[in-house]
Amino acid sequence: MIPTRLRGSKVLVWGALGFLGRHLVEALLGEGAEVSVLCRSRRRYETPSWADDVTWYELQGFRDEDTLLSAVASSELIYNFAGSSGAVASNINPRGSMDANCGAQLDFLKACEWAGHRPQVVFASSWLIYDLTGAERVTETQGVAPRSMYAAHKLCVENYLRIANLRRVIDYTIFRISNPYGTDYSAAGRGYKVLNSFIRNALSGVPIQIYGDGCQLRDFLHISDLIEAFLLCALPVARNETFNISYGTSYSLIEAVNIIREMVGTTSVIHRPWPGEYSAVEPGDYVADVTKAKTMLNFMPRLSLRHGLKQTIEESTADKSVSRSARAGVSR
């Protein structure tokens, strides 16, 4: 059950123009929340359908303290999706990753302190912070050992939030999210959404490329289930807790690819040797234990991998048809 606390509440989504943010804003508006969004220049992105239904805060430059403070002060519940993604990219450019994923967060927490109203901050962290575990189920108490600067910086921000909570600046909820997928209304071509990239290739008739044999296990979570988990953060029991957010069943990459091929048609698969930088960050198998989220939040994901892929492929096909029709109309 979605918390009634959301109706009429003031909510800020930082990073609203990305994959997670666009879906979440739409869901929050549907629940009757008063939504503000914080982003860098929105001219870089396709205008979302909900653009006229939210209050916009656009950061001007790297250190725009006034806008950041105004945005933070506007809301009691803040969803924090800010930062750069990509494990390999973060190792190649660690300073850039640190600035985007840590420096900006320190500025944000300073704004929370200045605002003085102790908001609840929901932070999108990652399963990549965990140590290698093989096929063992991973609970939130599992040891951590990031293999990329991206994951190290996610863990760093988790600690920032805990320290800020000890100082009574914020309350927090941390989600360690597995591999999300689903219809993507943000900028295309982001490699970390691995199933989305596989679907995009299959629908375009481009071979799907996999490094190695593709037998590594992943827990894939459809975007609709992830968004429901985010809405459940409004429950009081979510405050100052860390949760694994996954479907709870793992599949190998090659199993997921074969389901896509079955649904789309004759798409070939190419197995490539592991490039050095990719091999260095490869985390091996991941099998999530989601007992805590199910028990405390009553989080019950609905879409199995097969059903989620089917829905994503159908929606992606429909979007491509609409785009072709629109282009044809313009050309006439």
Order of helices and strands: EHEEHEHHEEHEEHEEEHEEHEHEHH
**Biggest sheet layout:** 7 strands, parallel
Helix content: 40-55%
How much is the radius of gyration in Å? 20 Å
> Which segments are poorly predicted (pLDDT under 50) over 5 or more consecutive residues?
321-332
Q: What's the CATH architecture name of the domain at 4-182 and 221-246 and 288-302? A: 3-Layer(aba) Sandwich
Spatial order of the strands in the main sheet? 3-2-1-4-5-7-12
Structural class: alpha/beta
Overall CATH class of the domain at 4-182 and 221-246 and 288-302: Alpha Beta
CATH homologous superfamily annotation of the domain at 4-182 and 221-246 and 288-302:
NAD(P)-binding Rossmann-like Domain
Query: How many β-strands, per DSSP?
Result: 15
Question: How confident is the prediction overall: mean pLDDT?
Answer: 91
Roughly what fraction of the amino acids lie in strands?
A: 15-25%
Annotation field: number of helices: 11
Apparent shape: globular
* Terminal CA distance: 48 Å
CATH topology of the domain at 4-182 and 221-246 and 288-302: Rossmann fold
Task: Describe the protein.
The chain has 332 residues and is of the alpha/beta class. It contains 11 helices and 15 strands. It has a domain of 220 residues: NAD(P)-binding Rossmann-like Domain (Rossmann fold, 3-Layer(aba) Sandwich). It has a 7-stranded parallel β-sheet, sandwiched between helices. Helix 1 links the parallel strand 1 and strand 2. The C terminus is likely disordered.
Quick tags:
single chain; 332 residues; alpha/beta; Rossmann fold; seven-stranded parallel sheet; two-stranded parallel ribbon; 11 helices; 15 strands; 18% strand; globular; disordered C terminus
